[in-house]
């Protein structure tokens, strides 16, 4: 089967970024969120980001128009009926994703495929909630999708070889380098990343250094492009906490435990860039 139309469920930073790279690769895109207004707002944000590239001379104005014209905002998952593949990029919450997967499964024709951008939730469990478990796969884009080259392709226990090959080709057409993971908590990237982020938060909690000290140490001492506390703020502290709890619960290993400071920040609503305050403060957009 040839993929021509891709649905993206979630018009936030991740979903909007996935929609942008898909449209840039030549796919027709249907972008959906909780309301049609949010979906339209997502398309407008993509247009604004592409306009900045035009102003910098990195993109032709005609190319910008072509990309945006391929992205159609839609109102509900029921409007995915003409899509060949739907990529879910909703909040990292199991019950939410299960509900959305069922809605997409009901809307899609029999031969279509379903993917999740989840960073920690079991693809096997998501696949089992559908009538097409062999056509379900994980496509974990790194944040932000237009800039990050990696896609983590996660095989559920039910994922067929055909589904794996087809979605791998889709990600590569989007210009991504693909790594493959079995379905296990955190997959490859977050299994390595989350303990590091939590250890940096433990260091802050114990007063070993300031946020700037910790991040500068990682950037200049480890050659990381972004410090762990900066990265946590970008990801969202609620998401970091959720993944840490999944790893701790499923592996039963204390090395995955979440710091009290992280829990307190999330309880306070200090979630990072998206709320204007995390380990750093951010001016309102």
Provide the gyration radius in Å.
Answer: 19 Å
Alpha-beta content class: alpha/beta
The fraction of residues in strands falls at 5-15%
Tertiary shape: globular
Taken together, the total number of domains comes to 2
* SSE order, one letter for each helix or strand: EHEHHEEHEHEEHEHHHHH
Fill in the CATH topology of the largest domain. Rossmann fold
Low-confidence stretches: none
Biggest sheet, strands in spatial order? 3-2-1-4-5-6-7-8
General description of the model:
This protein has 285 residues and is α/β, with parallel strands linked by helices. The chain has 2 domains: 5-182, Rossmann fold; 190-274, N-(1-d-carboxylethyl)-l-norvaline Dehydrogenase, domain 2. Helices cover 47% and strands 14% of the residues. The protein has helices at 13-24, 36-55, 61-69, 94-107, 123-128, 161-173, 189-205, 211-221, 228-235, 237-251, 260-268; strands at 5-9, 28-32, 71-74, 85-88, 113-116, 136-141, 150-155, 177-182. Strands 3-2-1-4-5-6-7-8 form an 8-stranded mixed sheet, with helices on both faces. Strand 1 (5-9), helix 1 (13-24) and strand 2 form a beta-alpha-beta unit. The termini are far apart.
